[in-house]
Each structure stands twice: as C-alpha cells, then as structure tokens.
C-alpha cells in the first residue's frame, strides 16, 4: 500500500506542465504544388509564425501553430507573371517528448504531428488577364525538434516539419497525381515558458 501512495505522489509531481509561447522564423524548402501557375514552390522561401503549447514533464503535449510564408510561389518570376503569392498554415498538433526525468532541462528532443488548414494564395496574369488561386485544404504535418532552456523562463527551439495537403490532384505539367501543396519547414524559435 505504501508503494502505491509513493507512486501516486511521484505521478502528481510529473503531472505539472509548462505552458510555452514560441515565436519563430525560418525557411521552407522542397516545396511542390499542382497549381500550374507555380513559379517558385521548389525554392527556399522565408517563413515566420508562432506556436502556443502545453508540454508535460512526461511524454505528452499539445500545441497550436500558425505560420505565414510571403512570396511563397515566387522565385525568379522574370516575366512578371506572378503578381503576389503566399502560403499559410494553421494546425493543432500532439507532441511526444523525451521526459524531463531523462533530460533534466537540457536539450529535450520531441516528435510532433497534427492536422490543420493549409492556404495557398496566388495572383497571376493569365491569357485572359489577372487571375487568382485561393485554395484552402485540409493538411497534415509531421516533424521533430528539440527545446533547450537558457534561463528558467526562456530558451530556444529547433524544428524540422513536413506539411502536405490530403487533397490530391493531377499536375497539369507532369500528369502525376500529387498533393495540392507540400513543403518542408525548418525553424528556430524563442521559447517563453509560463
């Protein structure tokens, strides 16, 4: 009986959690899209955003993440066909982290995955004049990262994540069935713990 009481007291200590706010910036790369107006989804583009999350001292956590990549579909655009573009993601994810009992507030690796909205916006010039793509699709994201604290309240997060839409279409140029949009995102963020 004493073992159960000691075990429950230990579990209560582990039940405490950290609330995290993480503004981040980084880049997207290895992008692909079925939109024929794409000029640069395969190039590296800047991205910025933020995450708000809850991370237990054990294995589990959750987060909400939003990111915005301006000029996402523009690379060289030598003919001025693309007038403006962007990609936006909004997702909710589950985090599986190495417990604090193992890392003791040093670098804490984790896996992350979730679902959310992926928006593609492109304004371009077609043969009939200005036209636009305004697509909202359900997407998934999976990735990994690590959080390290420099002070009791602040630290850094390094993360690599893959995003892609569930909806697939045939690419007009290649004839291959592919996600409407997919890309990798690498970011560095400042972690603020509450």
Helix/strand/pairing category: mainly beta
Q: Name the strands of the widest sheet in spatial order.
A: 1-2-3-4-5-6-7-10
Proportion in β-strands:
over 45%
User: Helical element count?
Assistant: 2
DSSP helix fraction? under 10%
Number of strands: 10
Main sheet summary: 8 strands, antiparallel, barrel
Any overview of this molecule?
By secondary structure, this protein is mainly β. Helices cover 9% and strands 65% of the residues. It has two helices and ten strands. It has helices at 2-14, 100-103, and strands spanning 17-33, 45-56, 60-70, 82-97, 108-126, 129-149, 154-165, 168-170, 177-179, 181-193. An eight-stranded antiparallel β-barrel has the order 1-2-3-4-5-6-7-10. A hairpin with a 6-residue loop joins strand 8 (168-170) and strand 9. It is elongated, with a radius of gyration of 20 Å. The model is unreliable at 1-14 (pLDDT under 50).
What is the strand and helix layout of this fold?
Elements: H1 2-14, E1 17-33, E2 45-56, E3 60-70, E4 82-97, H2 100-103, E5 108-126, E6 129-149, E7 154-165, E8 168-170, E9 177-179, E10 181-193
Antiparallel strand pairs: 1-2, 1-10, 2-3, 3-4, 4-5, 5-6, 6-7, 7-10, 8-9
Quick tags:
194 residues, mainly beta, 8-stranded antiparallel β-barrel, two-stranded antiparallel sheet, 9% helix, 65% strand, elongated, disordered N terminus
TL;DR of this structure?
This protein is mainly beta and about 190 residues long. About 10% of the residues lie in helices and about 65% in strands.
């Amino acid at each position: 009986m004493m073992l159960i009481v000691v075990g429950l007291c230990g579990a209560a200590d582990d039940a405490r959690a950290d609330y995290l706010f993480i503004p981040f910036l980084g880049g997207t790369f290895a992008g692909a899209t079925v939109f024929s107006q794409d000029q640069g989804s395969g190039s590296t583009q800047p991205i910025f955003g933020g995450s708000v999350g809850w991370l237990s001292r054990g294995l589990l956590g959750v987060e909400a993440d939003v990111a915005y990549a301006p000029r996402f579909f523009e690379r060289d655009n030598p003919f001025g066909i693309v007038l403006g573009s962007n990609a936006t993601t909004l997702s909710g994810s589950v985090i599986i982290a190495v417990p604090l009992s193992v890392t003791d507030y040093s670098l804490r690796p984790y896996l992350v995955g979730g679902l959310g909205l992926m928006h593609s916006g492109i304004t371009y010039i077609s043969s009939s004049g200005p036209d636009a793509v305004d697509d909202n699709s359900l997407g998934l994201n999976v990735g990994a990262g690590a959080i390290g604290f420099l002070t009791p309240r602040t630290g850094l997060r390094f993360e690599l994540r893959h995003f892609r839409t569930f909806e697939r279409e045939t690419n007009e140029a290649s004839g291959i069935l592919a996600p409407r949009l997919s890309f990798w995102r690498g970011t560095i963020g400042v972690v603020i713990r509450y």
